Amino acid sequence: SPSPSKKKNISRNQSRTAICYDPKMLLHKVPVNHPEQPERLSEMIDYLKQTNLSCRCKNLDPRLAQISEISLVHCVEQINKIKEISKINKKQVISVIDDTYASKFSFKAAKAAVGCLLKISDWCLKPKNANKSQTKIRNGFALIRPPGHHASSDKSMGCCI
After folding, report:
1. Residue 13 vs residue 124, higher pLDDT
2. For a Cys-Cys bond, which of 36, 76, 126, 151 suits 159, CB 3.0-4.6 Å?
3. Is the omega angle on the peptide bond into residue 146 within 30 degrees of 0, that is, cis?
4. Degrees (nearest 5) of the Cα angle 80, 93, 89?
C-alpha cells in the first residue's frame, strides 16, 4: 500500500469507482431473527462514511427500475406476486417461500435495488465524458437489498424476492 505521502487526493469527479444506494431499500422488512436485516445495509453505509471511503467514490443518484426492465429477467406473474404484497398492512411480513419474506415496501425496495444495479452498469459501460472533465468509471458497488442472486425468473428463494 502506498505511503500516506504518495497517496493521491482523489476527488469524486476523478474516482474510477462508483457506489449507488437508496434508503428505500431499508423499508424491506423480514422477521426479527432473519439474517437479511436492514442493518446489513445501513452498517455498510455507515462504515463507508466513517472511513471516508464514500468520499473517494463517485456517488450515483439512485433510481427505481421500471417494470419493463425487471421483466427482462423475471416473469410477469412473479413481478405481480411481489407487487400484490405491497397492499398489505405495513406491519405485516409474509413468507413468500421457506426463508424468503416480503412486506409492504418490499416491491419498492426491490425496484430500488434493481435500479441501483442498472445505474452502476450504465456508468461503468458508458464512454468517457466527451469533454474529458470526468474520469471514466471502471467499476462500481451497488449496496442493495433485498438481494436477488438466488431468485429465479419465476420463483423467490434464498432470501431473494
Report:
1. 124
2. 36
3. yes
4. 80
